[in-house]
Design a protein that fits this description.
This protein is about 35% helix and about 15% strand. It is of the alpha/beta class and about 270 residues long. Helix 1 packs parallel to helix 2. It is globular and about 55 Å long.
Length: about 270
């Protein structure tokens, strides 16, 4: 979140003088990401990730876009090459969070100004550290103009925090490869079951074409699935012999109530400003 905040706040500060203080949130994102957007921008708008016409109409007067490839928790994938062209047309900064898909599954940097990723997830594999990274597109004019400003908002890590990911990240690529294989196997199994009503993944009809444009190989598959069952959730949740917890990217399968957590958060009464 610090890396996302750093990227977001730097761009926000840089463009205030131009009157560009409105952010567009593409799709339903991670809860903390939404909180940052809501609290730091003068206003923001959430747009359906697949409604291209609606997005293009809004971009004529809105100035910064944050999205995830793929989104959390519905694993939707936007047409990133198309979005990149649109952002360049309106001189809009595009920030992409690649945590769910990972940098080993998709290629995003050529299509955005800033890419951010949580190192707590697949890069770690153990969910035992809090750290993130952001990568600047050197070809981005707004990035080049504000390169020194990004350091103002970074919370530096101490030595122990750097040593742990330095060890864990060595297995990042092999971990993602194995996770991709396992997730595809689970998807194929669930897709044949009568008790499964819907599976949200990059193979969903509204995302598969977009994902193919940025995936690095035919075997690339984000290691998260969101599933809708034909019974109340606890009917299946309590029976599954899987580790349960509020994260992702671990070395073992993990079952998480992320969809419900997101829905509950969206229903919370907003505090008065």
């Amino acid at each position: 979140m610090n890396e996302l905040f750093t990227a977001y706040e730097t761009i926000l500060s840089a463009r205030k003088s131009e009157g560009r203080t409105i952010a567009i949130q593409l799709g339903w994102l991670y809860v903390d990401t939404i909180e940052i957007i809501e609290k730091r921008a003068n206003s923001h708008l959430q747009i359906n990730i697949h409604n291209k016409l609606q997005l293009e109409n809004w971009l004529e007067s809105n100035h910064k876009i944050i999205t995830e490839i793929t989104t959390n928790p519905l694993i939707q994938c936007i047409d990133l090459p198309w979005l990149s062209i649109l952002c360049k047309k309106f001189e809009i900064v595009l920030i992409v969070d690649v945590t769910i898909a990972t940098t080993f599954n998709v290629e995003v940097l050529p299509y955005c100004d800033i890419a951010v990723e949580s190192l707590t997830k697949f890069a770690s594999g153990n969910a035992d550290l809090l750290m993130g990274t952001f990568v600047l597109n050197e070809k981005s004019k707004i990035v080049q103009a504000n390169k020194k400003e990004f350091h103002k908002f970074i919370i530096p890590a101490f030595e122990g925090e750097l040593q742990r990911p330095a060890c864990q990240i060595q297995n990042y690529e092999s971990r993602v490869k194995k996770v991709s294989e396992n997730t595809k196997t689970i998807y194929d199994y669930l897709n044949k079951q009568s008790f499964v009503k819907e599976i949200y993944s990059v193979l969903h009809h509204d995302s598969v074409g977009n994902f193919k444009k940025i995936r690095k190989s035919e075997d690339s598959f984000p290691g998260v699935l969101s599933v809708v069952f034909d019974e109340d959730l606890e009917f299946y949740y309590d029976k599954l012999q899987l580790t349960k917890g509020p994260s992702l990217g671990t070395n073992s399968q993990l079952q998480c109530l992320m969809c419900i957590l997101h829905i509950m958060n969206s229903l919370k009464p907003k505090q008065e400003k």
